[in-house]
């Protein structure tokens, strides 16, 4: 929950900030944890703003031993944080830990009890989203979950930009949103920028990092392509322009409602939010208790069958073709003419936890390699699909990324052939005959 609380504490106008948490398991434990996080954030967010904290993740902040002028308030809030942690532990013990693969959609907007003073305008929105899952419908992994968040957020807040953050990351620098907006407000480049990518940095790395969890080689290469159309999406820690991910360049001028529904689905409210974004106002009451009509709309947008017969996952939203939805989505956006920005400030904007043991590293790398190779052996292979739509250098970058797993072949050869030759006394190199020996 530190991820959620740190995102709610960003240094940004609260009425323009909304946090959505996706729970694919539809677990009651997670829902109750989000409710507890909302109660604690009602104290934490005002505290951060009052004293201008630069570190707004509660776990990281209370781990520091520095002394502050406001130590009295800090100790009070630290006690509240301890109670918050105890409530989470109690919740995890009392509730069932089972996760159902078949469950209806659940969307809940966090708000205060009726008998409490509101002050909700000073707090960002916090929305829990558990999309519907049915065994008869493919769920499309992370890409499907992100597309549901796109649709649900469109009719609740409809912000023109959004941040994607994984649950193992937290906001380390509260000014990250403002830093990203500096690029989006550039009158020269803003119309072409689809996303602003921050690097993934980790707080749990050992000194030697024997499994390469820091991803240093990949992050260094990202600087090079920043001079082309930019680096690819890196899974999280990026601010995306909603207009870009909707695939606006694929919409014909004067498209009819039926044509739009074939692209975006049957929700009239969602189409209004997208097509009339300048005048559209989400129908969220001030008390943050959605009406029955809005709840019905949210249930429709989060249903497992909403994508069927539409272009979601093909030309709209995150692409479903590969399990590495970030790579295929960024490739298509770059091919559509969008550019991206890679920024790496001295103070990390986001920190997280990376794999630091062999088992976790193998699972992660296998998933990445499978998804990227799936792209490399399809019609989306960058060396063929890319040059017709973007520069050859940008295509070579994507080719190196997608086909990187082929480098394992020579490694396997070098690790298998020499031991076999040694076992069977087979010389690896030609022997020097005695006749050719020359004694000096």
From TrEMBL:
<feature type="active site">
    <location>
        <position position="326"/>
    </location>
</feature>
<keyword id="KW-0812">Transmembrane</keyword>
<dbReference type="InterPro" id="IPR029044">
    <property type="entry name" value="Nucleotide-diphossugar_trans"/>
</dbReference>
<feature type="active site">
    <location>
        <position position="24"/>
    </location>
</feature>
<protein>
    <submittedName>
        <fullName>Uncharacterized protein</fullName>
    </submittedName>
</protein>
<keyword id="KW-0961">Cell wall biogenesis/degradation</keyword>
<feature type="binding site">
    <location>
        <position position="24"/>
    </location>
    <ligand>
        <name>UDP-alpha-D-glucose</name>
    </ligand>
</feature>
<feature type="binding site">
    <location>
        <position position="166"/>
    </location>
    <ligand>
        <name>Mn(2+)</name>
    </ligand>
</feature>
<dbReference type="GO" id="GO:0012505">
    <property type="term" value="C:endomembrane system"/>
</dbReference>
<dbReference type="GO" id="GO:0071555">
    <property type="term" value="P:cell wall organization"/>
</dbReference>
<keyword id="KW-1133">Transmembrane helix</keyword>
<keyword id="KW-0472">Membrane</keyword>
<keyword id="KW-0328">Glycosyltransferase</keyword>
<dbReference type="GO" id="GO:0016760">
    <property type="term" value="F:cellulose synthase (UDP-forming) activity"/>
</dbReference>
<feature type="binding site">
    <location>
        <position position="142"/>
    </location>
    <ligand>
        <name>Mn(2+)</name>
    </ligand>
</feature>
<dbReference type="InterPro" id="IPR005150">
    <property type="entry name" value="Cellulose_synth"/>
</dbReference>
<dbReference type="GO" id="GO:0016020">
    <property type="term" value="C:membrane"/>
</dbReference>
<feature type="transmembrane region" description="Helical">
    <location>
        <begin position="409"/>
        <end position="429"/>
    </location>
</feature>
<dbReference type="Pfam" id="PF03552">
    <property type="entry name" value="Cellulose_synt"/>
</dbReference>
<feature type="region of interest" description="Disordered">
    <location>
        <begin position="91"/>
        <end position="112"/>
    </location>
</feature>
<dbReference type="GO" id="GO:0030244">
    <property type="term" value="P:cellulose biosynthetic process"/>
</dbReference>
<keyword id="KW-0808">Transferase</keyword>
